[in-house]
Amino acid sequence: MKYVDEYRDAALVHQLAARIARTVTKPWTLMEICGGQTHAIVKFGLDDLLPKLVTLVHGPGCPVCVTSAELIDQAVELALHHGAILCSFGDMLRVPGNGVDLLTAKARGADVRIVYSPLDAVTLAQENPAKQVVFFAVGFETTAPANALSVLRAERESVQNFSILTSHVLVPPAMRAILGSPENSVQGFLAAGHVCAIMGTGEYGPIAREFGAPIIITGFEPVDIMEGILRCVQQLESGRAEIENAYSRAVRTEGNAPARQIVEQVFEVCDRDWRGLGVIPQSGLALRPAYAAYDASRRFPLAKAGATCATECISGAIMRGVKKPHDCPAFGTRCNPEHPLGAPMVSSEGACAAYYRYRHRLETPAAVAVA
Question: CATH assignment of 5-63+172-245, given 3.60.15.10, 3.40.50.11750, 2.70.170.10, 3.30.1370.110?
Answer without folding.
Answer: 3.40.50.11750
